[in-house]
Amino acid sequence: xxxxxxxxxxxxxxxxxxxxxxxxxxxxxxxxxxxxxxxxxxxxxxxxxxxxxxxxxxxxxxxxxxxxxxxxxxxxxxxxxxxxxxxxxxxxxxxxxxxxxxxxxxxxxxxxxxxxxxxxxxxxxxxxxxxxxxxxxxxxxxxxxxxxxxxxxxxxxxxxxxxxxxxxxxxxxxxxxxxxxxxxxxxxxxxxxxxxxxxxxxxxxxxxxxxxxxxxxxxxxxxxxxxxxxxxxxxxxxxxxxxxxxxxxxxxxxxxxxxxxxxxxxxxxxxxxxxxxxxxxxxxxxxxxxxxxxxxxxxxxxxxxxxxxxxxxxxxxxxxxxxxxxxxxxxxxxxxxxxxxxxxxxxxxxxxxxxxxxxxxxxxxxxxxxxxxxxxxxxxxxxxxxxxxxxxxxxxxxxxxxxxxxxxxxxxxxxxxxxxxxxxxxxxxxxxxxxxxxxxxxxxxxxxxxxxxxxxxxxxxxxxxxxxxxxx
Length: 472
What we know:
Elements lengths: L5 H4 L4 E3 L9 E3 L9 E5 L7 H9 L5 E3 L10 E3 L3 H12 L6 E6 L4 H14 L4 E5 L2 E4 L2 E4 L8 H8 L8 E5 L2 H5 L8 E6 L7 H4 L2 H15 E10 L5 H8 L5 E5 L4 E6 L2 E6 L2 E5 L7 H16 L4 H7 L11 E5 L4 E6 L4 H10 L8 E4 L9 H12 L3 E3 L9 H9 L6 E2 L3 H10 L6 E5 L6 E4 L2 E4 L2 H9 L1
Parallel strand pairs: 2-3, 3-4, 4-5, 6-10, 6-11, 7-10, 11-12, 12-13, 18-22, 19-20, 19-22, 20-21
Antiparallel strand pairs: 1-5, 7-8, 8-9, 14-15, 15-16, 17-18, 23-24
Helix pairs in contact: 4-10, 12-13, 13-14, 15-16
């Protein structure tokens, strides 16, 4: 679209510095994503810092759309009154091929695995799909690029969700509590909204667990279309709360984890129960309770897309875990296993420790806690490790701007039998060295991450790569 056509598409009150017509194909409110074909959206209510405007200029954006004139900025500015309304309308014109269906998954733990499982099922059945979340931007299973937020900005949702072709494309993305609280989704239409679970997390941002829960419920009350599906874990204790918010609308409820849709293990086999009919799943790679619960959610979402259960069952054996989620490395020399996982909340840590308890043998755990984040969970995670783990190694996660020693001490205070090793690589090396025959070691907290954040520097660090190197 040409800049000269902007005033024909949206209601522009006044134009400044417009003296050269240029072409643009996208808009963004994130200065990092601006370039010579992407306009910058400036909302006076978001308190955009000067450093961001400097970045916009450096990236040679063709123009700015704003609800306030910015002085001393000598690039074209198109000033509008209702910026949210105008931007939404412009996005529908720039990205006309919107998804056939959009699925959003929220929850404290499991979001990444669920969207990954859904995409795996759709890929196997040749359904065009786009996936966006913690692991990046994927189209039909192929990674396109990384993204800097679990849930991208409103404009990016349009860009990622749209298709160049007039084909039925399914858009799947993770909806974080931050994005929901900040109204990043605005009025982007969600056809299927799913929730995996809710436990304490991000209290540094939300302040109270009640606020955190309310942010999750917003996916259903504020963003799910009236004719949509609400996919709910039947194990949640907020079912009545959710129902009250949706009961007056035409939203259809689907539950997983109960008699409607449930995965159960009998001996070494996994069975899928759908409406009291049992199906034996051959060659299923997912075995732990964590994996099966997430797979229940993914299956329920796919059924809500009107995909037949016979088709879904046929491809379940092809579903694998994403990077850094229950990723298993065989230590053949000691006939042991090392599990790489993103578990960084008390609930996730407890579940993974219980999942890998074999008879009376407890797994060992290596973890730390992130700096500048919810400090209240450090005590809980320490007590959980103390109760459910064999050997415990406390090391650094992403200390960020906090003193790493103080973070470790706050964990060790409630887990005195743990071994403290500040350097994460050395801690992993020691934990592997002390592994005995048939034991399991869980390296938790960072999962897929390829870096470690320490004050003013970011260093390359990948738990999976480090373990593989140490085993060679």
